[in-house]
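Data availability (excerpt). All sequences and predicted token strings are deposited with the supplementary files. A representative entry, Diguanylate cyclase (GGDEF) domain-containing protein, is shown inline so that the format can be inspected without opening the archive.
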Amino acid sequence: MPRIQPTRPQMEILAWLLIFLLLFFLSWRFNWHEGLDDFIENNHDYPLDHGLLALNISGFLGLIYSVLRIRDLSIEVNRRLQAEKNVDWIACHDTLTELPNRRFLESVCAQSMVDQRAQESFAAFSIDLDGFKKINDLLGHDHGDAVLKAVARRLSSLFPRDRVFRLGGDEFVVLARRTGNPDLVALGERIVSVISKPVIFNGIAVDIGASVGFALYSENGDDLSQVIRHSDCAMYVAKKQGRNLVKPFEPAMQDELAKRVRVEADLRAAIKHAEIVPYYQPLVDLKTKEIIGFEALARWKTASGEFIPPHEFIPVAEEAGLIVDLTDQLLRHACSDALSWPSHLVLSFNLSPIQLSDRLLGLRILKILGDVGLPAHRIELEVTESAIIQDAVTARIVLDDLVNAGVGIALDDFGTGYSSLSQLSNYRFDKIKIDRSFVSSFETNDKQDKVIKAIIALGAGLGVTITAEGIEEESQLQRLQDLGCDIGQGYLLGKPAPAESLAADQLGARILHRG
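Structure token line:
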């Protein structure tokens, strides 16, 4: 904290005090008071005694004024000191939870010590809440704030002698002293257990979870910031693998995180320069062998000529908050390509699960269609059942808006998730897509064959088109045709290709697969 500098009134008081002391010393040294008494005694014609009385009275009043002024100055200085303390506290603490914030943690890292004892052994726990965004989106920020306060209280109670930080959003860090040889995995699981208890707010029980990673000071060098980076790395791995998990840091995690950071940086550049483009795989009517449309599949070819598969960069785009920009860019590109196709061909486009929690998704898609000039009935959006269940309320609003505008909706990967019949009745799906995992084995697996039969029969009963993905063998194609499957997709019928490589016969009426 900066040192308080004396104010001008304080300096003036000090100066007058010094002058008074000087005059008092001179008066005592040269007997000025006795000389003044003699002068008054010998000069009665002058009312000097009255003047001296007035001077004494004014001096006494001045003394009182000075005392009061000094008191006011003292109050003012104390208020200033308290205000500066408050400013310092606010700068280093989170106002919502009253926990130390990231700035405080950075100052601790700069000093490389915990509780002023740099040599003390401790563990750093990085904590990220699971499902917190959904609470804010569905219940409002008041409920989200209540959850954060409850988590802060629970962590502070669990670690009364240690430091708990809120870094922002739903991220917390605990620097816990190690005495003896504690079971840190068990402690991490206790953190998860404490946080996961429902939070009651306005009569509503809010469920929350947590992903926890930890790293040890004694095993990871003397750099506190590095220890916290390691615990963050372990936490990201825990979050990636599921909810309510605890992971200790392992050196291999750092390599994985470094790779992810590189991929994210490259991905940002690729989106900026529009290097990720749609490839198109034909959708074929299995009865007539006619192509009825194409599914757009994201392909990223780096400057070195390497193809990075979607399952590697799509999750990174979701975690880094890039999925909206990437999807909008790919959809605009695909819609522009589809304008050059015959008008009966449909464009099928996949939506990321995380996007169905965005209430503005439908409006953005319809705006892109309007900007490009592609009719709404020529596009079909594919969503997974797990994506719908993640945020059912928002998903229902978004999908209803799109359906009302004439956009088709397909339920993708059917059979791999919940496969709930209630979802088929709650949403207006135009198509159900059978996952490739069933198609790859149904010829040799009687149960899989029966599942496909049941799905095809279900589609016929509901009046919903059935598409089979992953057709790679002639025998698979023949069997699906025999079962009455409507549409097929797979390498046997056509591999994904860029728009400029689509053959003339693919854009025509029929496709001739090679057996």
